[in-house]
Specification:
This protein is α/β, with parallel strands linked by helices. The protein contains 11 helices and 13 strands. The strands form 4 sheets. A 7-stranded parallel sheet has the order 3-2-1-4-5-6-11, sandwiched between helices. Strands 7-10 form a two-stranded parallel sheet. It has a two-stranded parallel ribbon with strand order 8-13. Bound molecules: nicotinamide-adenine-dinucleotide and thymidine-5'-diphospho-beta-D-xylose (TDX).
């Protein structure tokens, strides 16, 4: 058995990673550390909690992290504050969890000589123009826009520095926008689905021309497994599934799939500093590691996601009013 420590395993992508790993990689023995912030929910691990070790704790707690890392073979580091809009309201938790938390993991990995895979985002590269044929590659210079993306960029640079200066065994992946089950309802797609289910009109920032490169969370996670198995130490791999669409298209498609008039949404205040377009060139991942996405039909993926939120009202309903009240304060 290989021991794997998963940080942030009660969040959206981390909990899907736990489920995916238990189903597809029975040789891993899993430990999760999660602070259970507003975004972490043990219900995301319902049915599998008895198969893993779950530790409620903060990755900034260096003593705890040191012990957990000393007991594992590999660390897969998902834990972070993850929402751009929150980082514009209060950047401090982003600086603490994303920068200090990552440094705490790195020091323990260095001390105990363990393998690390660091999960990051395409937002570290800033944004592209709508008419630019270019996509992000591992050579694109870092140019982050928000407190969220700049702390993620900083966390990547910490990992790169620990690789170069101390020779730790680490890989990094930068993935595009994920969708799927267990995503917090503050995020774009689940917010609109749960708005419609609650009788609230979907909310589009600005004109809705901004483009995101959507990938199903299981495709992100099977790419992470490919990197853990076959990735070269010290390397960065970009993860994306050629899913570029603008936000207006996504809102209209959700409305249509839910049997509503596709124009029945509201334009609300734009996000300050709103990145225009993200697009991933995943050639390195595809050619070097032989990875291919499985969910290539975004419409079908959205339909399945709508079904999940429709069937799991109890999972999100109690949070809905609070999330919408925070947005309403900003006219969003
Ligand atoms: P999420 O907000 O749903 O989950 C984050 C989890 O980390 C939560 O369970 C939270 O409790 C935990 N956490 C936060 N701070 C912590 C701390 N100090 N100590 C321990 N646990 C802590 O986020 P997500 O969307 O699942 O994102 C996971 C990772 O993937 C992040 O690193 C994010 O930057 C990255 N990422 C996300 C996307 C996306 O589209 N959501 C895309 C690319 C990369
Ligand atoms: O109500 C909304 N209306 C709207 O038009 C919300 C919540 C968002 N938007 C827009 C903003 C973005 O252009 O939709 C797009 C997606 O927004 P988010 O879901 O907040 O994602 P984004 O800011 O693109 O960042 C996401 O992808 C990269 C994740 O939250 C990050 O964790 C990841 O790093």
């Amino acid at each position: 058995m290989t021991k794997m420590l998963i940080t942030g395993g009660a969040g959206f992508i981390g909990s899907n990673f736990v489920h995916y790993t238990l189903q597809n990689y029975p040789d891993y023995q899993l430990t999760v550390i999660d602070k259970l912030t507003y975004a972490g929910n043990p219900d995301n691990l319902a049915g599998v909690l008895e198969k893993i070790e779950f530790v409620t704790g903060d990755i900034c707690d260096r003593e705890l992290v040191d012990r957990l890392v000393s007991e594992t073979d590999i660390v897969v580091h998902f834990a972070a504050e993850s929402h751009n809009d929150n980082s514009l309201r209060d950047p401090w938790p982003f600086v603490e969890s994303n920068l200090v938390g990552t440094a705490s993991i790195l020091e323990a990995v260095r001390k105990h000589g363990k393998r690390l895979h660091h999960i990051s985002t395409d937002e570290v590269y800033g944004d592209l123009e709508l008419d630019d044929p270019a996509k992000f590659t591992p050579e694109t210079p870092y140019n982050a826009s928000s407190p969220y993306s700049s702390t993620k960029a900083g966390s990547d640079l910490l990992v790169k520095a620990w690789v170069r200066s101390f020779g730790i065994h680490a890989t990094i992946s930068n993935c595009s926008n994920n969708y799927g089950p267990y995503q917090h309802i503050e995020k774009f797609i689940p917010r609109q689905i749960t708005n419609i289910l609650s009788g609230i009109k979907p909310k589009l920032y600005g004109e809705g021309k901004n483009v995101r490169d959507w990938i199903h969370v299981d495709d992100h996670n099977n790419a992470v497994h490919a990197i853990i198995e076959k990735g070269r130490s010290g390397e960065t791999y970009l993860i994306g599934a050629d899913g570029e669409e603008n936000n207006k298209y996504i809102v209209e498609t959700i409305l249509e799939l839910m049997g509503k008039d596709k124009n029945d949404y509201e334009h609300v205040n734009d996000r300050p500093g709103h990145d225009m377009r993200y697009a991933i060139d995943a050639t390195k991942l595809r050619e070097e590691l032989g990875w291919e996405p499985k969910y290539t039909n975004l419409r079908a993926g959205l339909e399945a996601t709508i079904d999940w939120y429709t069937e799991n009202r109890a999972w999100w309903e109690a949070e809905k009013a609070k999330v919408e009240a925070a947005y309403a304060e900003k006219g969003q």
